[in-house]
Amino acid sequence: MGALPTLYAATAPNVTGGAYYGADGFRETRGYPIRVFSNQRSQNRADAARLWEASEALTGVKYRF
């Protein structure tokens, strides 16, 4: 059940690109997959950039788009 939201997001024909899918139970910790919304902090672009830079530095892998 823990992998079900990920599998659903990757394979279901009715999912929306860029959307977040989690469990429908208490605090998204259990249940069947539904579309859920991430919190405001997860949308912080400065934090995302720092995480990306740290990931590249720690792995030695550079990704360019």
Concise overview:
The protein is an alpha+beta fold. It has helices spanning 4-11, 45-59; strands spanning 20-23, 33-36. Strands 1-2 form a two-stranded antiparallel ribbon.
Could you explain the architecture of this structure?
By secondary structure, this protein is α+β, with helices and mostly antiparallel strands. The protein has one domain (4-59). 35% of the residues lie in helices and 12% in strands. It has helices at residues 4-11, 45-59, and strands spanning 20-23, 33-36. It has a two-stranded antiparallel sheet. The longest helix is centred in the C-terminal third of the chain and has 15 residues, at 45-59. The relative contact order is 0.13.
Helices and strands, with pairings:
Blueprint lengths: L3 H8 L8 E4 L9 E4 L8 H15 L6
Antiparallel strand pairs: 1-2
